[in-house]
Amino acid sequence: MPPAQVSGVKPPWERPRRGSDALLPVASAAYGLAIQARRAAYALGLLPRRRVGVPVLCVGNLTVGGTGKTPAVIALA
User: Fold this and answer.
1) Arithmetic mean of pLDDT, 18-31
2) d(CA 52, CA 50)
3) Alpha-carbon span 72 to 62, nearest angstrom
4) What is the mean pLDDT of residues 22-42?
5) What are phi and psi of 28, to 5 degrees?
6) What's the CA gap between 63 and 65, in Å, rounded?
């Protein structure tokens, strides 16, 4: 028997849909448009680029928790 059936927890694709699920594609499209507008503003020079004078390294992105960012930063430090 699969673990989900043993624990009684159904995976998301087997759960009943909620009304709020319809908002996710709308929110995703709005976020995508905002990111495109921001990138275009930088490309057109509407938003200034700033030089900080030291090398900058970005570890991670919008992922929160459990992806190993902290150990990676410690190893790089």
Assistant:
1) 88
2) 6
3) 16
4) 94
5) -65, -45
6) 7
Which DSSP string do the residues of the chain spell out, in sequence order?
A: --HHHHHTPPPGGGSPP-GGGGHHHHHHHHHHHHHHHHHHHHHTTSS-----SS-------S--SSSSHHHHHHHH-
Name the residue type at position 1: M
Encoded amino acid at 33, one letter: L
Question: What proportion of the chain, given as a percentage, has pLDDT over 70?
Answer: 88
First to last CA, the chain: 46
Rounded Cα distance between 10 and 37, Å, is: 38
Which residue matches tokens 């390294």?
Answer: 57
> Are the beta carbons of 76 and 57 closer than 8 angstroms?
yes
